[in-house]
Amino acid sequence: MCGYCSFKVIAVEFNASRLHLPRFRLSVAADLCVETISVLSDTTNFAVLDLFTERRDLMSLPVIESGRPIGLISRNIFMSQMSKPFYHELYGKKSCIAFMDKEPLIVDANMSIEALTFRAVESGEKALADGFIVTRDGVLAGVGFGLQLMNVVANMQAEKNRQIMHSIDYASVIQRALLRPSNLALVEALDDAHLEWQPRDVVGGDFYHFARYDDGWFAAIADCTGHGVPGAFMTLISSSTLAQALQQLGPRDPAALIAEVNRGVKGMLGQIEGGHGSSESNDGMDAAFLWFDNASRTLRFAGAKLSLFQLDPEQQAVQTVDGERMGVGYLDSPLDYQWTNKAIHVPEGSLLFLTTDGLIDQIGGAKYIAYGKRRMRDVLLAQRTRCARHVAQALLDDHQAWQGEQPRRDDLTFFCFRP
Question: What pLDDT score was predicted for residue 273?
Answer without folding.
Answer: 66
